[in-house]
Amino acid sequence: MADWPPEFDALLRRHCRLVGTDAPIRPDALLVTLGMDSLEVVEFIVAIEDAFDLVIPQEMLTPEVFGTPSSVWRTVADLRAGVAR
Predict the structure, then answer these.
(1) Rounded Cα–Cα distance for residues 77 and 37 (Å)
(2) CB within 10 Å: which end of the chain, N or C, has fewer?
(3) Buried (b) or exposed (e) across 4-17, using 16+ Cβ within 10 A?
(4) CATH fold of 26-81
(5) Contact, 48 vs 11, CB < 8 A?
(6) Domain extents in the chain
(7) How far apart are CA 16 and CA 35, in angstroms?
(8) What b/e sequence results for 31-66 when a residue is b if at least 16 CB atoms lie within 10 Å of its CB, and e otherwise?
């Protein structure tokens, strides 16, 4: 089961075109297998920054961070908590 808030889940579903409305999203699934291409990743980043009122530092814009839902959420949660990575 996913360990992120509904707001993040809604953003994720909006940008993962291969995920059904009620289908569970595996936290370790690759975003690309969920239907997120490179343009969607950029749009996802902007949506995250807007929704959570934060800026994702350029050094965090990596395939490792934006590889899976859980890696993205961990990064967002850390930024919201002020935890440096």
Answers:
(1) 23
(2) N
(3) beeebeebbbebbe
(4) 1.10.1200
(5) yes
(6) 26-81
(7) 5
(8) bbebebeeebbeebbebbeeebeeebeeebeeeebb
Q: Which two tokens stand for residue 35?
A: 């239907």
Amino acid at 55: V
pLDDT in tens, 5-29: 999 999 999 999 999 888 999 999 9
Encoded tokens for 60: 């965090």
Copy the structure tokens of residue 8: 């993040």
pLDDT at 68: 97
The candidate with the shortest Cα–Cα distance to 35, out of 20, 23, 22, 17, is 17
